Amino acid sequence: MLTPTVANRLSFLYAIGNTPATSLTRSVPIGKDVDVLSLGCGDVRNILFTSYVERGLAKRKIDVTCCDYDEKVIARNIFFLTLLLDDPGHVSPSCLWEIYYHLYVDAAAVEQVLKHVKKLLPLLETLGAWKRGLYAKVIRVADQETLDDVRAVCRRIRDGAEQRDTASYARTFKKNLKKTCDTLEAFSGKDGVNMSGVRSAAPLSLNSHNDMIKAFQTYSTHGTVTPHDPGNTVPNPMFASLVSETNVFHYGSDPTLGYHLAVAFAPLSENSPLKMHVEKTEFQTAEAARTQFIEWIAAFRELASRGMMVRFMVADVFACCHTLQHSASTGEPSGNWYRRQWDLKPLRLDGDEYGPAGKGPTAFDVVDSSNLSDHVGALNIIVAASSLLKTEPWATLYTETLLKQEKSQQEAFEKLLCGNIATMLLLLGISPVQYWTNAKCESHVDEVFLTMLVGALNAPQTQIHSRMAWKRDDQLSGTLGARGKLHIDSSALVRILFDIYMRMFSGENFKISVNAALDRSSAYTHFHRGSYASFLKVVKHRVRTDWPAVCSQLLEKISHDRSLALSTNQLQELGIQMHLQDVSTESWLLRESDNLSTGGRFRMWKNIPLAVAVTVIVPRSAVERLYAGENREKSSPTFVGSLRAGPNSPNQWQNMYSDVHIVFGKVKNSPKDENTPIIVEQDDQGWSGSSALIASFVVPTAALQVDPVDARVAICIPPSTQAALLYMGILGMEMTVFETKLSAASSVFVTKLMPGLTGHKSVCSRVNNFTDVVDDAGNGTSNKIMAEVPASESVITTITGHVDILSDKGKKMLQDRIPIELQQRDAFVIDVIFGNNALVCPLRFPIPVSQTGSRLRVARKSGHVEVVAPVASSKDSDVLSNFIYPTRLDGKGFPAALNASHMNLDALPVLDLEKKDQMQWLVTLASLEFSPREKSMRDEADKKSGISENVRVNFKESLLTMFMLTSGLQGGQTGMFAINHPEKGGIHMLIFVSALKLDADCSSVVLDAAVVPMTNQLVASGSMDPFLVIIRTLECGSINVDDAELILWKRVLPALAERCRTWSHRSDCEYKRKGATVPLSLVQGEKFLCSCGNGKLPKNFVSVPEWDTAAPNAVRIAISPTFSVPLVEDVVDPGDMAKGKEQLAAGDRCRSCGSAAAKDGGSLKKCMRCQSVKYCSTECQKKDWKKHRMECSES
C-alpha cells in the first residue's frame, strides 16, 4: 500500500452506510454516457439513489465499478442487487428491507435468504459460469479472486441460514453484537449516540436530532428500525454469519442514515415525490427511509432493464487505481499489487473484460472516493486516481473529508495537501473547482448545526465535512488537453519538494508540541517514503527541469535534515522506492550495485538486482502480546521493517522500511536463487488462527551485504508519543516486536520479488507527459508557462506566461516597437495585444491569475514576450468575482457545468408553501449563504446605498430575496421576478418559479424555475406583448442589479439551465458554432443562452395568465442558494457558533449576547412580533434586529 502498515486486530464491518446517498452521475451532463469508479463504495445506497435520479431522463449507458476492501460488503451488495433483479413480485419491498438492514428477522425472511444464496452459489463457481448466468447483463465481477471471496461469503450466509434455529448461532451473534455495544461505549461513553447522523436530515437537521437519537437507540437496542416485532427473533445471516470477535459490526450503523430524511420533517405538498404515506408516526425517519427505499429499488430495476452495468471488485483504493492505470497503459491485467493488506492474492483483472477487446472501463467520467481521504489521505487519492479521469470538462474526482479547525481554513487545506495550495495544484495538474469558485450549491449549514449540537453535549467538534470536486486543470481552464509543462529551475523545485516532504512527515518532527504528539494524525500518518515517491512520479511528468539534478539535490538536502526523527533512517527506502517507481535511480545506488557480492545470501544468484524482498516470520506470540490488556485490546500498532548493524559492528546504523506487507500464514519453501519465488500459504483464519505473521518489504540489495551474517532484521513500531505510552512497557526503548539475525535461514528469506508477485508494483503508469510547449499555428506563436521562485521562498506565488513570436508579421511588430498591452479575458487567460488588435496572443494559465500586479517583459531581439502574473486569491480577487458557476464547452461544442451538480427536478420533494409555520428553517439556510466576510460587506452596504461594491454579495442578496419572496417568509409572496437594471434598459430577464423543492443531495433547497431572456430580437418580435401586459398587473419581485451583477447572471444562467436539462442539444445549437462561448454574449440585448431548451417545460409549469405566449421563450433552470467554501474562508462567525452552542446547552438565552437573565435581573423578554426569540434588554434586541428581521414573522 501507499500508506503505513497498521496492524489492526479489531476491524469493523461497515455493512450499512452512515452518510446520506449521493448521485454518482451528478457531474455528467444529461444524455452523456457515464463510466463511474466508486472507491470505498460501501453499501448499495448510492447505486439505488443514482437510479432514482436517472428515472425519466434521457436513456444513456451507465457503467459503475464498485470497489471496496471488504469482501463481505461486496458480497452483500451482489446478493441484494441480484435479488432485486429477480421477479419484482417475488419478494416484497418490506422483506427486502429487512433482509438488507435488520439484524433480526422472521423465519420467512431467512428462508428467502437461503433460497437466493443457493441460487447464487452455482453461478459463483467460475467467472465463466457467472458470465453465462442470468444476472451478467447487469452485474459483473472484475476478477477471479473477488468471485472467490463472494462465493466464500455466500457459503457463510448459507451455513448461517441453515443453522438459524440453533441456540449456539443465536448466542454467538448476541456475543458479537455486545462487542459492538462495548465499542460504542468506549468511543462515545455510556448511553452514547451517533450525532453525526443528523447530516442525513439536512437541511432540517435541527428539527431532527431528537428523532435521530431515538432511531439510533432503537436500532442499537433491537436491531430493527422500529421497536422489535415479536416475530423478528431470528438472527439475520446477512449479518450474523459475517461478524466475529475481531470483525465487529460498526457501532455507528443505522439503516436510515443512508437516506434523505428531511422529508420526515419538512411540509411537502400533497402530490410531492417521496411523500410519506403515513405522515405522523412515532418513527418518522424510519418511515421516510422506507418510502425512499421502495422508490429507489423500483428505479434500479427500471435502469437495469435499460442497460445499466454494475461491476464489483474487492481491493483497496491503491491496488484498484494503479492496476486500472497499468491495464490502460499496457493491456496487462495485473500491476503486481496485493489486493489489500492481510491478503497475499494480487489483483488480476479479468482478461476478457479488461483486455484489448473487453468493455471494462479504465478511464472514468466520475471517480467517487467516498470518505477515504480521512483514512488514507486526500493527496494519496489524488495521486492514485486523477490519471483515471477522462479528458472531458465534466470528468470529476470527488473527495470527502472532515476539515479540522486550524488557524485559518487556508491552513487546514494546506495541511490536507501537504503544501502551499497553488504550488501543489500546479505540480499535480488538477484543481478542486470550489477552491477557485469559492461558491457551491452544497450547504454547510447543517455541518454548523452539527457542531453546535455536539458542542452542547460537551463533546466539541471542530471539523466541517467538506466534499470537493477535482478536475484536470486543462479542462478547468479551457485548455482542452493542450496544457504545457511547468518550466522551473531545478534549485527552486528542490526547495519546493523539500518543503512538501517536511510537511508530509511533520509528525516525525522533534519539536512537535505535546498536544500535536498526542494527536491521532501523528501516530497514524497517511504517508511513508513510497507515498512521497509516487507523488514525485506525478511531478516528474508535470514539470520541465533538470530532473536528475532535482532528485540528487533533494536527497542530499533530506540527508542533511536533522529535524525529523526518521529522516536519515528512511533515506534508503526513499531511494529504492524512487528507483522502483521510475522516478530516479541515484548514483549512490548504482555505485553500491557495482560492489554487490555473490557470497552469503546471494551465492546461488547469477543476476543480482538493485532491490530485493526480505520476508520475516514473526512468531504469533510476539504479535499477540501487543493486544493483551484492556487498554491495548482495540489498539492498532504501525509496523515497519528494520535493518540494523549487529551488536558487535564498529559502525552502528539502522535503516527502516515502512512499505510492509503482512499476512498470517506459513512459508512452504526456502528459495536459494533469484529464480525461485518464495511460497507462502495464507492462513484464512487470520486472527482466529495460530499461524505466524509473515512480513515482507523491499530493500536495496547492498543494504544486506554490509553485515551479511550479524546484521539484525526486525519488525518494529515507529516512535511516537502514543506508541510509547502503549508499547514501551512491553517492547522496551527500541519498540521491537521481533528481531533476528539476517543470516537466520529459518525465519528470514531474501527473494527477488515479494511473495506471490511476478514483478514490482506498477505505480502511476498512466500519468501522461504534458508537452514542453504549446504551439499556436494560427497565431504563429509558441507558448510555455514558467515558475520563477525567489531563492528565499519555497512556494509559487506568480506564474510567467512566455510566448515566442514565430511569424514574420509578429517579429516585425516587435522590431518596429509596436505598443503592447495586456487585457485579461478571464481568470485563466491574459491576452498580449499588439497595437490596435493587429496581433492578439492569448496566454492561457493552468490556474487563475490576476492581471493586477502583473509585469510585462518584452524581448524584441529575442522575439518573445513574457507576462509575470500573480496567482489569484480564491477569496477576494476581482478576476474571480464572476467565476461562480462556470460552463465550459468540450471540443465538439457540448456545454458542461463545472460547478453546478446535475439533478432531476421532477424527482425532488416539493415543499408546501402554505405551511409557513413549518418553513422557518429556510430563513436560516438562506441567510447563511453569506460568509462572515461577506456579512461585513453587506452591513457596510446597508449603511449606504444598499448595493455592495462586491458583486457576489449583491448576487447572494438577490438569491435571498427570491427564496424569501417565493416562500412568503418575508414580506409578500410571489414566484415572478424581473432582473432589472434601471440605468441600462430596464428588465433584462424574467424568472418564473414553479416550485420550491428539497435538494437533499446538496443538503439544501432549489427553485424549479424558468427564465425568459428579454433579448432585443424577442422584444422587437412583439410575440410576448400580451403576456407582458398581463404581468404588469401581477405581483412581481423586482431584482435591481448593476452592470457587474447583470453580467454575473448571464454567466451563471447557462449552468443553471444545463444542470436540470431534460432535452438534448440540437445539431445546430448555437454553442456548436465556430468560436462560440458560454455565455454566447454579454452585450446588452443579445442572446446569452442557446435556444435548444426554449419551451421545453413540464405541462402547467406555472399558473400565470397568457403563459402559453411566454413559454416558447422560456428555459427551465434550477436556482440554489450559493454558499462560500469552507476550505477558502470561514463560513460562519466563530462568535455566532459559540453563542449557538451555549443556547442549545443552556436553553433560554438572550439571542444577542447569550445572557440567561435580563439586564434588570428579571426574566428574558420575548420578541413581541414572533414570540420565538428572547432578549435581555432593548439594546440587545436592537443590535440583533438586522439578523432577526430575516426570520421574524408574526406568531
TrEMBL record:
Q: Where is the MYND-type domain?
A: 1150-1192
Q: Which GO terms describe its cellular component?
A: nucleus
The UniProt keywords, alphabetically, are: Metal-binding, Zinc, Zinc-finger
User: What's an example of a GO molecular-function annotation for this chain?
Assistant: DNA-binding transcription factor activity, RNA polymerase II-specific
Q: Which InterPro entries match?
A: DUF4470, TF_DEAF-1, Znf_MYND
Q: Which domain of life is it from?
A: Eukaryota
Residues of the signal sequence? none
| PANTHER family associated with the record | DEFORMED EPIDERMAL AUTOREGULATORY FACTOR 1 HOMOLOG SUPPRESSIN, LD37257P
**Which named protein is this?**
MYND finger family protein
